[in-house]
């Protein structure tokens, strides 16, 4: 069957400009590859030293294609910082089952995810970046507070959901830093069940417990 030269020329032009001419599934795969590569680059080099061109090179795509999906480096970082733990999955896992198990479910999901070395190293490097870059700190706060804990607290119908989310975050972040960052023993080598059974109820109390008078 003869090809349409106008259509073929449009495809070539689109490729030169970095515009994807793929099926929706392939486009999603390409975007996911860019996000994964960006997370690795940000984790290794930090925010300032990472470039869109370097991310494109790591992903094996043209830099124009990266800019097609993400307007700038900040937009891509916001997406990449959530890569190890998708907020929608965290919320879904936490809310699965009885209300009194929400804290346990959330901590279990985090521990099971971060016990994988690749995920834990990525999160710890993100925390290091956040400590030195206000932009990164803001993104991390939004991820932990707004996208995960505040959504859970709101789902529970608590009026002071933002305050509850911030207190729950102290336990979550503290656990991540202590177990996976500075590796405080015996917490660092404790079994997942031990961590979940001890920290889960504390997170649960912050999310649903009665405030002290």
Total DSSP E strands = 0
The number of distinct structural domains comes to 2
Task: Report the CATH topology name of the largest domain.
Answer: Tetracycline Repressor, domain 2
Oligomer: single chain
Topology order in helix (H) and strand (E) letters? HHHHHHHHHHH
How large is the share of residues in beta strands? Answer: under 5%
Mean pLDDT, to the nearest integer, reads 83
CATH architecture verdict of the largest domain = Orthogonal Bundle
Structural class: mainly alpha
- Cα-to-Cα separation, first versus last residue: 79 Å
Helix content: over 70%
List the uncertain runs: 1-22
| CATH class categorisation of the largest domain | Mainly Alpha
Shape: globular
Q: How does the major sheet shape up?
A: none
Computed over alpha carbons, the radius of gyration is: 21 Å
Number of helices: 11
Fourth-tier CATH superfamily name of the largest domain? Tetracycline Repressor, domain 2
In brief:
The chain is mostly helical. It has helices at residues 5-16, 24-49, 52-59, 63-69, 73-80, 87-95, 102-114, 117-132, 134-155, 161-181, 192-208. The chain has 2 domains: 22-80, Arc Repressor Mutant, subunit A; 87-208, Orthogonal Bundle (Tetracycline Repressor, domain 2).
Fold and architecture overview:
The structure is a single chain. By secondary structure, the protein is mainly alpha-helical. The chain has two domains: 59 residues, Arc Repressor Mutant, subunit A (Orthogonal Bundle), CATH 1.10.10.60; 122 residues, Tetracycline Repressor, domain 2 (Orthogonal Bundle), CATH 1.10.357. 75% of the residues lie in helices and 0% in strands. The chain is built from eleven helices and no strands. The longest helix has 26 residues. The chain is globular and about 50 Å long. The N terminus is likely disordered.
């Amino acid at each position: 069957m003869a090809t349409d030269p106008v259509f073929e020329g449009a495809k070539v032009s689109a490729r030169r400009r970095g515009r994807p001419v793929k099926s929706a599934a392939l486009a999603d795969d390409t975007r996911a590859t860019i996000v994964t590569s960006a997370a690795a680059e940000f984790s290794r080099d930090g925010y300032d030293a990472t470039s869109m061109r370097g991310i494109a090179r790591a992903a094996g795509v043209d830099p124009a294609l990266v800019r097609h999906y993400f307007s700038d480096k900040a937009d891509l970082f916001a997406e990449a910082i959530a890569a190890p733990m998708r907020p929608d999955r965290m919320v879904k896992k936490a809310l699965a089952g009885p209300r009194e198990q929400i804290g346990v479910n959330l901590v279990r999901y985090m521990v099971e995810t971060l016990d994988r070395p690749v995920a834990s190293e990525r999160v710890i490097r993100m925390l290091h970046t956040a400590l030195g870059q206000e932009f990164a700190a803001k993104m991390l706060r939004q991820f932990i507070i707004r996208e995960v804990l505040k959504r859970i607290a709101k789902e529970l119908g608590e009026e002071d959901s933002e305050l509850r989310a911030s207190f729950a975050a102290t336990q979550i972040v503290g656990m991540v830093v202590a177990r996976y960052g500075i590796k405080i023993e015996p917490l660092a080598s404790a079994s997942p069940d031990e961590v979940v059974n001890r920290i889960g109820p504390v997170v649960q109390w912050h999310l649903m417990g009665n405030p002290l008078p």
